[in-house]
Automatic annotation (TrEMBL), chain A:
One of its GO terms (molecular function) is symporter activity. Coiled coil: none annotated. Keywords: Cell membrane, Ion transport, Membrane, Sodium, Sodium transport, Symport, Transmembrane, Transmembrane helix, Transport. It is found in: Cell membrane. Its main location: membrane. PANTHER family: SODIUM/PROLINE SYMPORTER-RELATED, SODIUM_PROLINE SYMPORTER. This is Sodium:solute symporter.
UniProtKB/TrEMBL annotation, chain B:
It comes from Haloarcula pellucida. The lineage of its organism: Archaea, Methanobacteriati, Methanobacteriota, Stenosarchaea group, Halobacteria. Coiled coil: none annotated. Gene3D superfamilies: Cytidine Deaminase, domain 2. This is JAB domain-containing protein. It comes from the Archaea. InterPro entries: JAB_dom_prok.
Amino acid sequence: MSVILYGLVAMILVTMGVGLYVAKKIEGDSVNYIVAGRGLVLPLAAATLMAQSLDANATLGNTDLTASFGFWAGAALPIGLAGCLFLTGLFFAKPMNRMDLMTLPDFYRRKYGRVTEVIASLIMVLSFSLLLGGNLVAGGFLFQTFMGTTFVQGVLIISAVVFLYTIAGGLFAVAYTDVIQAVVALAGSIALIVYVATTYGITIPEGMGPTAIVQINPFDNSAGSWINLATIFALALGDIVAIDFMERVFAAESPETAQKACFAGSAGTLVIGIPFSIVALSANSILSSIGVEAGNQAVLYVLLQEAVPSWLAVLVLAGIVAASLSTGDGAILGTSAALARNVLGIRDEDSPGEGVEADGSGFLSKGSDKLLAATRVMAVPITILGAFFAIQVSATGMLLVLAFDVAFAGLLVPLVFGIYKPDVATAPAALAGMLSGSLTRLFFFVTIPTTYAIPNNLLYVENSLVPAGWDGLVTFIAPLVGLTVFLTVAFLTKDDYPTHSVTGRQQRAIVAGGEEDD
Amino acid sequence: MYAVRRPSALVVPQAVRAAIADDVRTAHPHEAGGFLGCERRDGRLYATSHVALDNEAETPRRRFVSTATDAVPPSPRVFYHSHTSASTPSGLTGVDRRNIPDSLALVVFAPHGDPYSYRLFRRALFNWQEVPVETAEESAAVGRERLPRLV
């Protein structure tokens, strides 16, 4: 146990040290803090995207779901996340990087105006506070299991660590520590599957493996295919509007770098995540062969405690801690920047990059502009909120998937049309589509007894209106409602609202006219 | 496109009003346009500066087309342009509503070259709403009165 303790402490100290060391790069400038000076080279950008996509869900949640329900139930998480990075690279990385944005809600402001910006920001802030909370829960349990702390102490320690290096070094700290975290997670994942394969062999239970296509057959829901498919598509499409991914896209040094980083991050997510699913398939047979039962504990934790040598347990656990830290830091940074800039509206229109010169009165640096100081201050309530969710809310996992479903249902359509069909995308259409999609998803949340197979003990209204079997399906229905409303309102308002493009670098054209078109 | 908090009125001091009138008169019968830099005081917007833009339209008598430059003042600001024919409306046309990127648009109706009506429109969430336009002495603090408005 002491080897694990020392290993995890070393991992955390190295992360803290690197994060605090690179904080000197901030130089009192919010552009450096929020988007790393828009200068991330390919290895850094790819590593930070890969580390950001892998979180406790894609590792711990993945193994638990695979062991219980089969390969596709668990692997849906890394596959969905990798799919998101692939789609982002294919369709969004280049145009979004060219726009010189600092936060994702900046896009909604530039294209659709202030009201849309604020609503989009609030949805994103809520989603990512829950994402932070979910990762703190995983970290808290890990500390409780392997380091002898209580759950609450574990959550507080991880919160403090992430908070300290994130608030000091912003995206620079996040990116540099993500490189360490990605390397550790990759090494842990590969070492684990190699060790398990050579020591115990890979055993795939009947009907549970990757070839059991019934798990993702949309026409046969007997093996939970709707939930598996919903997980893949909700992550692949819904995370396109994730503030943490897009922040890294904005931070890449060029559009081409942003695109390549997305592709590399996508591949890395699969390389790290899939081995956890494969190992989990064998977990139950390995544990029974050595006479151990997992009980209520996470199957991966039991496997690491009982079936692998300490050095490998340290490596894998460090990888899981790394995944939690790297996702947590991105969540804190992204949400605090969105709160300061897009909800509170702190910005300076006059200065390049919308930062202002350091004035010598900085907070944790030589100088600090208004946005930098406000973003750092906002990190305090966000971290507290994340820790509160982790400690006080029992259904963090369910709320997390709900929050991301709500974002998927409301935010994706205005983003896609804003970039690719700007001539039909009016502000009322965006607002109506956003609200109708998100509210539809919330309606289904309270009218279906389960959310991704998790019983809804929070707010379920018994009814005969919505079939209980629609769990999973509603993930697709809500965005389609949002799309329909968006297109309808766009048609109705096309004559009254400007539909300018916001993706080009060219200066804005102004058109007016005293006579109507012929 | 930067929205501003809803102003109760736009106050155009006489010096700025004269600058607008000069620009419109000089460009006539072509449409003129530009921006007014503003300050917010007591819920009103006060125009403090005037920036005229060149009309680059192929049909300048019925269109105003220009490109935003570094001279365009920061928000809060008002985009203004003139309607220069007796057959044009004194308010926004469909072309205006569809294409003016700013959220505050001042239409100066000047069918014979001299401004005849001033109407300010603010793009709200679901439609364009008219906002009163006033003028005042140099200090812009006292003696405000409504500018002529033809409907």
